[in-house]
Structure formats: C-alpha cells, structure tokens
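Issue: ligand-bound run for cobalt (II) ion - logging full I/O for the record.

Environment: standard queue, default settings, no custom constraints.

Inputs:
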Amino acid sequence: MPRVRVSATLDGMPNRSTWSPASWRTRPAGQQPDWPDAFALDRVLKVISALPPLVFAGEARSLTSSLAEVAAGRAFLLQAGDCAESFNDFTADSIRDKLRVILQMAAVLTYGSGVPVVKVGRIAGQFAKPRSSNTELVDGKEIPSFRGHLVNDDAPTLTARTPDPNRLLDAYHQSASTLNLLRAFTKGGFADLSQVHTWNREFVAQSPGGRKYEALASEIERALRFMRACGVDLSAGTLREVEFWTSHEALILGFEEAMTRRDSLTGDWYDTSAHLLWVGERTREVGGAHADFLSGISNPIGAKVGPSATPAELVALCDKLDPERTPGRLVLIARMGIGKAASRLPGLIGAVRQSGHPVVWTCDPMHGNTFVGAGGRKTRHLDHIMGEISEFFEVCRGEGAWPGGIHIELTGDDVTECLGGTEEVLEEQLELRYTTTCDPRLNGGQSLDLAFQVAELLRT
Ligand code: PEP
Ligand code: CO
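Outputs:
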C-alpha cells in the first residue's frame, strides 16, 4: 500500500495525498518551451515514461541520509559540474576529467574540513536552462532563446532554436551513458585516494602559483603516510571507491514527470532522472508548478535562494517542500553575489531555523557574480567567487549555522571562461578557449585553487 505522507491543509498547499506527478499541470509553470507539436511531445513523453529509471529510490534515500549528516554539521557538500551539459561535448575524456577535478577538490576539502565530503555532480541530466527572455534578436529577426540541449540547439537560427521533443530522448540516453561511465569510474579504482592525492601533488608542483598550497598538500601527504604506517590499506575497497551522486535543475516538468515512478518498496514517488533535483531562482515561487512538482517526490531537493528572497517567502517554500522537516531533504543554495550575504543571509538563516527546518545551507558563488567582460563575453572572477564563499562562511558562523557546502560551475577542460586564478586568466584571454554553452565555468586549475582556499577557510 502506498504510504500517505502528509495531509497539510495550509493555504495554497495541496493535500499531499492528492499529489500526482502530473498535478503541476494545474499550476502556473514558468520557463516551459513553446513546443510546436503537442502530439509529438506527448508521444516522446510516453516513450520516456516506459524507459528504465536512471537512478533508484534506495540511492536517493542514501543521499538524503548523507545530506542529513551535512545538515547536522558532520559532513560537507560539494556540488559541481557544468552550467549546461552539451550534446556536442560528450566524450569519455570530458566526463573523466570533470569527475577527476571534483574528486581532487573533494580530497582537499575532506582534509580541510575533517569531515566526509558528499559529492554531487551537476551531471548526467543538467541539460535545461531558464532564460530571462523567451526570444532574442539575431540580425534583426526574433528567434526563440536557447533553453539547453534538452529543448533546442544553441546555433542562432530559427530552425536550430525551434524546440524539438526528440531531444528529450537524446538527453535521456546521454544521461544513461554518462551515469554508466561515472559508476564504472567511481567503483572501478579511478577514485583511489592515493591516486587522487598524486594528481593534487602534480597540480601543486606544476602550476606556477600552486606552490602556495605546498604546505597543505604536504600535510595531506603526511596524513596518508601516517595511515599507511598504522596499517590502513589505502588500496582497500573503501579508499578506492566513492559515492558520487547526480543532480540537475528540475526545469522541464513534462520530462521530470515522465521520469517519475512509484517506489515498489515504500510506495513513495521518486524522480528517477537524478538523485537530487533543484528548483532554480526564477521558478521557486511557492504556488508555482515547480514547487508543486518537487513537493511530491521523495528525492532530496535543492532550492536556489537569491538576494530578492524574503524570510517569509523562504519559510513558506520550506514548508511546502519539507513539511515533515526531514533532515537531508532540503538543501538551500544561497546565491547572493559578493557583498550581499551580510545583509541578506542572517535574516533568512534565522527564519528557517526558527521554523524548525533542518536544512543544509550551501553557497553558490557563481550566479550572483556574473558580468559581461570588455570583449562582450559573460564571465566571473575567481576573487569574487572566493569572496562570496568567505562571506557565506562568516555569516553562517555568526548565526551558529554550519556552512554546509559549495555549489560550483566547472569543467576539467582547460577553458578560459572565468578570470583570475594562480595561472591567471586575463580579460583579453577569454576568447582563447571559451566553449561553454551557457554560463562561464572554472577550469581545472581554478577549481583546485578554489578547493585549497576553501580548505583553509574550513580549518580556521
Ligand atoms: C544555474 O544553476 O545554472 C542557474 C541558472 O542558477 P539560478 O537559478 O540560481 O540562476
Ligand atoms: Co549556470
């Protein structure tokens, strides 16, 4: 028998027993594509709803347990990956390199924090983007905006930008292959701690500015030697395998609905497209379709929280998404922009705490710090990114909350999309290797710079 979980009757809150994967359809849904052929869309969604799940309910429950440790201050969350995955950059090498840099960051952060690091990729499904405008002007002609490869192509032509439901199927298959490789890498020895540490030593030795991290890298080296001396077998299973989880923004609700299945064990609904789903800054209104959809699935849920969020609004969203106040259910992702945390965050953290929601607070220092550089490219500066993280740590500590994690857009490739770093990317170099299909990402070196600096913050 399915378990009926809640029968909340507060204003605007549906009784959870009446929720279904399709009930979002009765709510205003922002950011949905204008699909040209409703029949073609329905046909594809029907096919997807019969395909195997990408992740399993039991895995999502394990992630909730790990996030409950973060909520309690006993673990740290690293959520990272592309702004938007691309159909054109789909190779084993690029998946491996992204995973590798995330594992390297996680090793440094584990040492800095002294607690386990929960690793969640923006990967294997991060294909849809919210846009500030439905259309854009190209050579005087109005064409639909690019909404991510789940929906349309990025080329600036009317044909390329017309939403095509077959892309939903392509995205499913690319996600399945990506996940398959991630599972193989993380369980097959690629994640070996000694190996990950060797890569970090190479970064410190080879990067011109990396030397300033020498002391921390040597401490990690000594810790590993100490473990070996105590008889810990570093090549044993637990140190060769890691848990790696997937996540994406639950934006295109027809697709997420089609991926949602009832768990045969508990009777609860799970969105099997990823372990964790989040609601974006533009679609998080409590009465909207996205919050309705996420309220009914049992996966752990994230919510972006920007500078316009009010304490009352945020508590209402927490009540909607986590009425049972389950530790690990809800991750609040603050994305304020440098200089704003001190004024915005304390009220939000205080209100959420008073409302009794045991949330994870994490910091997305990317989306509040985007600006257009001299050459017209969207970019971000590593100093602003680090600056927002420092402010986040300071505010959380001032409020007695655990700064539970960071949420980063990065790639393992040697791109020139963000400025700064010890191997500094300058404004005039942005053109060299600017390959993102959406927001600018940290490259491998900049990501490790960031990890070493956050590790220092965690130690203080
Ligand atoms: C994103 O994470 O890529 C994104 C669009 O973020 P936000 O909703 O916070 O703007
Ligand atoms: Co982004």
